[in-house]
Every structure is written in C-alpha cells, then in structure tokens.
Design a protein that fits this description.
With 386 residues, this protein is an alpha+beta fold. The chain has 16 helices and ten strands. Helix 5 crosses helix 14, helix 9 packs antiparallel against helix 16 and helix 13 crosses helix 16. The chain is globular, with a radius of gyration of 21 Å.
C-alpha cells in the first residue's frame, strides 16, 4: 500500500479553481473504482527529465525487500526505525531548563522570520529565536501547537519551545535592556524562545503535493512494487509528511503547505519552491517550524483555509501506527482538549499568562480529531476491500 487518494470528494464552494483543477487531475485515475495512489518524492533532476518526457519508470523492488506498509495503512516498523530521531525528549527537556534559567546576552535582527522577532544569544552559549507575535494569540498558538505535538507523539519534529516574560529590569532580560528599547516590544509581553538549529535547508513538497501537482501533470497510479522500489530516503520523508499533514489539519495551520497551494491561483510554479515553515536537518529529519497559525488563529479562519486543509488530509491514507493509535484514543475518550490542557499546564510555567483554548476552540479540536479518526477508518476499509 502507498498513499491512497480518496474518491468522491466534491468541490467546496470556496475552493479556488486552481486547487480544484489540481485535485481533479489527481483523482482522474481513480474515478469509477477504488485504486491506490503511490506517492513519489522528487529526486535530483526529476523535474528536468519530466519536462523532456523522459522520466524513467521505477525499477522492480529488490528480491526479498520488506514492504514499506503493513496491514494496509501503516508504515512498517522497519521504515519508522529509519526516521531521524529529531529533538529527543531528554535533549529537549535539558535545553528548555537551561533556556529558562539563562540570561539573554544579546539580541540580533534577522534569521528568525518577521522583523519584530530577534535572534537571542543566551548566557549559556546557546541561541534561540525570540518570536514576538503581532498579537498574543499567535504566541498562544505556537505554544499550544508545540504541546499538542507532544500529545500526538510527534513533538520530536518541532524544535524545543518555551515562553518568556519580557521584563527590561528582570533577571533574564536586564542585560539587553537597551536593545529592548529599540525593539518596540511591550513591557510584560509574553514571547516564545525556540531553540536555534544550524544547517537547516529548504524542503520542496513531494508528489502528490509537489512539483507534479503544481505543474498540472496527470498523476499516474503506481503499483505496490513501485512503492517498494523507492529508495529508503524517499520513503522516510513520506513517513514524516504523513504526520505533518495530519498535524496541520488538527491545528488548522494555513501557514505551511496550504499557503503554497493557495498561491497556485497566481503562481503555477509555487509547488516547485520551498514549503513555508518546513526545513530539513542535516540528518534528513523534517523540522516543523513556526506554528503560530495553529489552533487559535487558524481556528478563526477555518472557512477560508479548510477548503485546502481538508483535501490535503484526504490525500493521505498511510500513517504512522502510533499517531493513528493516539488519534483513536483521543476520539474514544473525547479528551483532546483535556489532554492538551494537562500537558500544557504541567510543562509550561507561564501557561496562565496566555490562557488556554476557549470552550468553542476546544470543541473544534475534538471535532477535528474525530474527523481524522473517521478518515483513518475509511482508509482501513478501502484497504481491506482491495
């Protein structure tokens, strides 16, 4: 099994013509029957070969090669073991403890997104991106998204993040009092400190979300043997993408792949470019950066962005088994918001400064968990019918 594209999705009234045209092309091969879509990652030179009509078909799988998918919809354990470990829990806890205790030795402009953010050098020698939100809900969204990733078992994909209270005369910020005056940050504002990571590189989305979709080429169904013939590095990246798309749906994050899809309406080559707020570490692990749009800000704008987020989720039908199990448990217990609150309060000393989700936002989170659970069950049923 590979990535299975679900059929029967009807266009939303707000869905941009360019995105629906793209989704229609993806669905062309599966109309009239239940078939399987095998996702290919771009390899060096792939775009050039495709443009010349010379893209070679994948070769046969090596004799005795293990299947990358087990029980129809789960990535194999052998494949998951090859996924880079990312930010291990012990390592993240150690950095967070040190960052909260350290003093800010200097603040520099550039390298951390919008102009209001700063790159901080801490007294222990480490560096951190300091994000000052346009409004507090962005920092709240960053913090809650980080801890929701922990609830889902994918926090290792996000850099360690802690909240900090800006006080010019406080112990942590006193060494940079003069720099704070030029930053126009409000005294008493809550900012996020995110561990700086060196040598990150851009990530271009793989098919079916990447260059082939953006270029409008018809995507062909691939056989199980072809999926088995993909190099491990490509399969390992697909494992991480399946988590990313599920995570962005739950948080309603529109500031990553969704923003690129939105831009297709005026930039047909946007999918050949780097994906927003997603980087690759030197070991090949994906790093889910800057999640300020998640949960709070994203939930306010569901009507605008769900026509993009929902088709993305429906385009994935292979999952990490641990992720699916956690979704199933949150669905069964109807405990998504409660689990998030418990983890947030236990691990973030400044949680009360920003507060938690509203009752309506908590209901939306549970509803999205329930939707993902139903989608996974549908994928299981389709796989069983093949």
């Amino acid at each position: 099994m590979g990535l299975m594209l679900l059929t029967g999705t009807s266009p939303h009234s707000d869905l941009s013509r360019s995105l629906w045209k793209w989704m229609s092309r993806v669905c062309e091969f599966s109309r009239g029957g239940q078939k399987t879509f095998r996702a290919l990652l771009a390899v060096p030179g792939r775009e050039e070969r495709a443009a010349e009509g010379r893209t070679p078909p994948p070769g046969p799988p090596p004799a005795g090669a293990a299947s990358p998918v087990q029980r129809g919809i789960f990535w194999s354990r052998e494949l998951e073991e090859q996924v880079p470990s990312g930010f291990a829990a012990e390592e993240a806890a150690a950095w967070l403890s040190a960052a909260r205790a350290a003093r800010v030795a200097s603040l520099e402009r550039g390298g951390c997104g919008r102009s209001s953010n700063r790159l901080a050098r801490l007294s222990d020698g480490s560096r951190a991106c300091v994000r000052y939100g346009i409004n507090p809900e962005q920092i709240q969204g960053e913090a809650l998204s980080y801890h929701l990733a922990g609830v889902l078992g994918m926090q290792e994909r996000l850099p360690p993040m802690a909240l900090s209270l800006v006080e010019a005369r406080g112990r942590q910020w006193e060494p940079v009092r003069e720099e704070l005056r030029g930053s126009h940050w409000a005294e008493g504002a809550v900012v996020s400190l995110t561990r700086w990571v060196d040598n990150l590189t851009d990530v271009v989305a793989p098919a079916p979300w990447g260059a082939e979709a953006g270029a409008g080429r018809r995507l062909q169904p691939l056989s199980a043997g072809e999926l088995g013939a993909l190099p491990p590095s490509q399969l390992v990246e697909l494992v991480q993408w399946s988590d990313l798309i599920l995570f962005d749906y739950l948080t309603a994050n529109f500031d990553r792949l969704v923003s690129n899809l939105f831009s297709l309406q005026w930039d047909p080559r946007v999918m050949r470019r780097a994906t927003s707020n997603l980087l690759r570490a030197p070991d090949g692990g994906l790093v889910f950066m800057d999640n300020e749009a998640g949960l709070v800000h994203g939930y306010r704008l569901l009507a605008m962005w769900d026509p993009y987020n929902e088709p993305l989720l429906r385009s994935v039908c292979v999952f990490r088994e641990g992720t699916a199990q956690r979704v199933a448990e949150l669905h069964r217990r109807r405990s998504a918001a409660a689990e998030l609150r418990r983890r947030y309060r236990a691990r973030e000393p400044l949680w009360a400064r920003l507060g938690f989700l509203s009752e309506r936002q908590a209901e939306l989170l549970q509803a999205r968990v329930d939707f993902v659970h139903r989608h996974i069950a549908h994928c299981r049923a389709q796989a069983a019918a093949l």
